[in-house]
Amino acid sequence: MLPGVFALCWLVGLGACAVFVQQPHDVVVVAGQPVTLPCSITGFHGMVLWVKDGLALGVNRDLSGYPRYDVIGDHSKGEYHLLIQRTELGDDGSFECQGIQAGIRSRPARLTVLVPPDDPVIIGAPIVSLRAGDPLNLTCHADNAKPAASIIWIRNGEVLNGAMYSKTLLRDGQRESTVSTLYISASNIESGQRITCRASNKAAPNGKEATVTIDIQHLPLVNLSVEPQPILEGNLVKFHCSAKANPPVTHYRWAKGGAVIRDVLGDSYEAVVDHSFFTEPVSCEVTNALGSTNISRNVDVYFGPRLAAEPQSLQVDLGSDAVFNCAWTGNPSLTIVWMKRGHGVVLSNENTLTLKAVKQEDAGKYVCRAVVPRVGVGEKEVTLTVNGPPTISSTQTQQALYGEKGQIKCFIRSTPPPDRIAWSWKETVLESGTSGRYTVETVSTEEGVISTLTMSNIVPADFQTIYNCTAWNSFGSDTEIIRLKEQGSLRLAVIIGVAVGAFLALIVLMGTLGAFCCARLQRNLKGVVSAKNDIRVEIVHKDHNAAREPEEHTNMKQMMMERGEFQQESVLKQLEVLQEEEKEFQHIKDPTNGYYSVNTFKEHSTPATSQPAEVRNTATATLGKQRVPTGMSFTNIYSTLGPGPNHRLYDYGGRFVLGMGSSSIELCERKLQRASLSDSSSFQDTQCDSSVSSYSRPDNGYAPFDKASKASASSSSHHSQSSSQNSDLTRPLQKRMQTHV
């Protein structure tokens, strides 16, 4: 059918049958890209005109006014396509293709040119700085976009919501600018984070991005360390100041107790600590561009007590209260003790010491003492002065030489000082100066006042006179009576003391010589081995029953003669014991220091043994304690003492006792020779025990130990020795005292 139409149009005339085979249509193009608007007219060979928004662009292929525009296609086929190269926003509009001779036009075609936004811009990028604690406000704008750009914010791959948008139409009426503002609280932002602004529209569907880095600036964050702690005063300690800051640290400054340490500039400081470091902190100040941070530390330094509040001495009236205050510092915690000087009683453990209703005896020096365990001790002394009547303390009997100048002294303690001091005797009263043979002088000392009455020539009547020393002050008075004694009696006491000392020295010398002789004898006795035995010295009442002594001595002597073995071995042991005792007495004048433990014994119920005959000698025995001479055999000892009325030798249950008058020395053999004594009925194989009483030879037998009688015996120990000699010779012995050394 179409060829038939073309043939008909050919017959009718030129252009009578021209039709659009292709017409332009709406096109959307991104600026900068080419676009072709099609136009094809069949059966038309006249002029073709392109019109944009009602304005002709040119005829046929002549578009000289628009260099980016071209009409392309095969004209012989009626193709007049419009090519726009590198489209611009100005190309946006309505286009038509017209056949002028044929009087035909195409439908209008809308060319829409899209413009992508410019690269987005974040204000302050690429690094946005803010102070720590401040919120973050970011602004991003995307300009010159058609249509207007859309903006989103992204952090760590996540879209941040809450941004605010605004659009602005540009002067060309086609493009727009978009602005987006993002608010982030301080708690939701960290330094170093990256936040992206992405802008997109139809021309740039993938969008364009801009990124910013968040830089949170802050004052220096400071940490001050102290090593070592705790530390003893006088040792070295190191301070280290570590800081984190943005911007970086520019300066360090050190101070102690507020005073700047100018010679230290770095981040470390070393010092030898004392007590002040405990109360005065060391500070480190770190500075950067934003400002400074200061931090301080006290040192846990151990130091001894130091006085914080010094106590003051007090002067109070009699009967008033005295209150002392004392404060100490120390580390670790200290203990405060209040004491009176010279007394061991703790009066208070508080800072305050209160003495209620003071008396004159309360006067004196008081000590406030502070103790820091394992560190040190400190103390402060104060004086309490009690206002009251004078107190006189003087010797009531004072001495002087007949015919010489004599003095009587009166010592007065008085607060306030005495107003008046007077001496009086017989009818005479003298306060100061000289009156006849008498002169009064008064001297003040730190402890009190000394008033001296001087007599120029002592006469016998002076020793019979009573002297009064009286002192007065505003609170009252005190009087002391003083007597004068002739000084000759003192000389006699000195002479007696010297004589006693010489006598004791002679005894020590004799003991030393005896020990020397015994030592020489011991070196000559070879092969004899003995052990030291206990020595018991007994002080006993003299036994006046002389009828039994000869028989007892006779039996003992016979037994000793039969036991020659005892004479050789056991006696040698006794001599060695005596030698050891002599050595002890060289160094100890009185082993009991004047105190004797005296035991009293009651009678035993055991019948008395037969009495040996008493061996007598012409030698005279000495009363009291006598020592057996050392360096002699037992036989020689016996022969030296001789058979006399005061020398007796007894066998007391395995102990040999050499009796001498009212005293006896018991030679105690702990281990008797079993081999040599086993067949004797007179000796027992027993050990000596100092805790068991020795034999007492009353008429009716042995006396058992009585603890109850021990106390009564102690009080009578001094009288026992002297009374034993003067006792009734016919009275039987009821009690016996012994002293153990």
UniProtKB/TrEMBL annotation:
Alphabetical GO CC annotations of the entry are: cell-cell junction; plasma membrane
Kindly name one Pfam family recorded for this protein: I-set
Q: Tell me where on the tree of life, at the top rank, the source sits.
A: Eukaryota
Q: Report keywords, A-Z.
A: Cell membrane, Disulfide bond, Glycoprotein, Immunoglobulin domain, Membrane, Repeat, Signal, Transmembrane, Transmembrane helix
Q: Report residue spans for region: Disordered.
A: 679-741
A biological process (GO) of this protein is: synapse assembly
The Ig-like domain, residue ranges: 3-112, 120-213, 220-300, 305-385, 390-485
**Residue spans with biased composition (Low complexity)?**
710-725
The family database entries (PROSITE patterns) matched by this protein are listed as: IG_LIKE
Q: Which residue windows does the record flag with biased composition (Polar residues)?
A: 679-697
* Bilayer-crossing regions: 492-516
Report the membrane topology from the UniProt record: Single-pass type I membrane protein
Q: Which residues form the signal peptide?
A: 1-17
Gene Ontology molecular function terms on file = cell adhesion molecule binding
**What are the subcellular locations of this protein?**
Cell membrane
Whether Membrane counts among this entry's keywords is yes
Q: Could you say which protein family the record assigns here?
A: Belongs to the immunoglobulin superfamily.
What's this protein's name?
A: Ig-like domain-containing protein
